[in-house]
Amino acid sequence: MWNELKERPRRRKRVLKPYASINPRGEIVLNAAVFPHLEGNYYVALHYDDATGDIAITRPTWTGRVYNVKKFGRKKRLRVVRAMRFLNHLGLKIEKDNAIHPNNPTPRRHLSTKPNLGKALS
C-alpha cells in the first residue's frame, strides 16, 4: 500500500501592524501598514503639540513646510521622512531611537518625542 504525500496546510499571511520610529538623525521611519493612513501621499506636513510632546504627520496644506516621503529599506517597503530641520527649528533633540507600536491605529498619526509617552499613532 502506498503512502500519499499530503498537502501542507497553507501558511496564513502575516498582517503587519502599523509601526513608526524616530531616530537621533531626525528620520521618521514608517512601515507599509502606516502608508495607507497617509492616503498614498508622498508629501506630508509635520506638526508639533507643545502640551503633549507629539509630532503629528498629516496631509500637506498650502501653508507650512512640506516634507518628502521616500522609499527606504530592503525591497523599498519602508517610508522615511527626514525631519531634522523640523526638529532643529523646534529645538528638539532625540536622544535614542523611539519605536511606536500603536494598539488601535486611527487616521490621526502621532509620533512621541518623549520615550515614555505611549499615545503614538493613535
What does this structure look like?
By secondary structure, the chain is mainly beta. The chain contains 1 helix and 8 strands, in the order ββββββαββ. The chain has an 8-stranded antiparallel beta sheet with strand order 7-1-2-6-5-3-4-8. Strand 3 and strand 4 form a beta hairpin. The N and C termini lie far apart (60 Å).
Summary of the model, kept short:
The protein is mainly beta. It has one helix spanning 84-90, and strands spanning 20-22, 27-30, 43-49, 54-58, 67-72, 78-82, 98-100, 109-112. A hairpin with a 4-residue loop joins strand 1 (20-22) and strand 2 (27-30).
Shape: elongated
Termini, distance in Å?
A: 60 Å
In quaternary terms, these chains amount to: single chain
What is the N-to-C succession of helices and strands? EEEEEEHEE
* pLDDT averaged over residues: 76
- The portion of residues assigned to helices is under 10%
What is the spatial order of strands in the main beta sheet? Answer: 7-1-2-6-5-3-4-8
- Extract low-pLDDT stretches: 104-110, 112-122
Q: Report the C-alpha radius of gyration, rounded.
A: 18 Å
